[in-house]
Amino acid sequence: MVTRRSYIWFTATLLLAVVITLAPLPQRASPPARKLIHVDARQYAYTPGEIQVNTGDIVTIELASTDVVHGLYLDGYGLSMAADPGQTEQMTFTADRPGAFRFRCNVTCGAMHPFMIGKLIIGRNETFLRAIGLAVLGAVSIFFMPRKQG
Questions:
Q1: Distance CA 77, CA 96 (A)
Q2: How far is residue 66 CA from its own chain's centroid?
Q3: Per-residue confidence (pLDDT) for residue 29, from 0 to 100
Q4: Nearest by Cα to 95 from 49, 129, 61
Q5: Which residue did the predictor score with more confidence, 67 or 7?
Q6: What is the pLDDT at residue 89?
Q7: How big is the CA angle at 18 (ends 100 and 6), to the nearest 5 degrees?
Q8: Cα separation of 49 and 77, whole Å?
Q9: What integer pLDDT is reported at residue 2 of this predicted model?
Q10: What's the chain look like in SS3?
């Protein structure tokens, strides 16, 4: 039998879960910064393979190839460049779209070319932060849940 206390506890937990999932997270009031990111390209990887910047940053990616001609195409922005071995190329853009974007080699560089992929993350990983909040809520709910008396 469901008691009134259990019903109230369940409703409150459900409402808190909805708030954690949908409420806007506070944003940091940091001014846009200029970021220079050096990326080394070699068969068949980028170093670093993951880049994180803040929304609004002015980002310059400097691509250096160490072995053969490599390129870098940034999905979602439509930007591309290519670098010859031993040379560097640059592209600059404003990171104005929060989210995760792949970058990939756009110059055929060998058999494993399709797997030469990296990731640009713009802004915070809000999904991860919300998942942590829901996990904490679940643990607290189980610990403090009203027990059946009888």
A1: 10
A2: 27
A3: 59
A4: 61
A5: 67
A6: 96
A7: 145
A8: 18
A9: 65
A10: CCCHHHHHHHHHHHHHHHHHHHCCCCCCCCCCCEEEEEEEEECCEEECCEEEECCCCEEEEEEEECCCCEEEEECCCCEEEEECECCEEEEEEECCCCEEEEEECCCCCCCCHHHCEEEEEECCCHHHHHHHHHHHHHHHHHHHCCCCCC
Residue whose pair of structure tokens reads 């910064």 in the numeric block: 33
Question: Considering only CA atoms, which of 90, 22, 92, 105 is closest in space to residue 53?
Answer: 92
Residue where the block lists tokens 């997270």: 25
Position of tokens 């459900």? 14
Q: What separation in angstroms does the CA of 87 have from each of 9, 67, 69, 80?
A: 63, 10, 9, 16
- The token duo for 120 is 């640009």
CA distance linking residue 35 with residue 136, whole number of Å: 35
Quickly tell me which residue has 């220079």 as its tokens.
36
**Residue corresponding to tokens 């979602």:** 76
Q: How many residues does the chain have?
A: 150
Strand partners, 73: 80, 104
Query: Most distant CA pair in the chain: distance in Å?
Result: 77
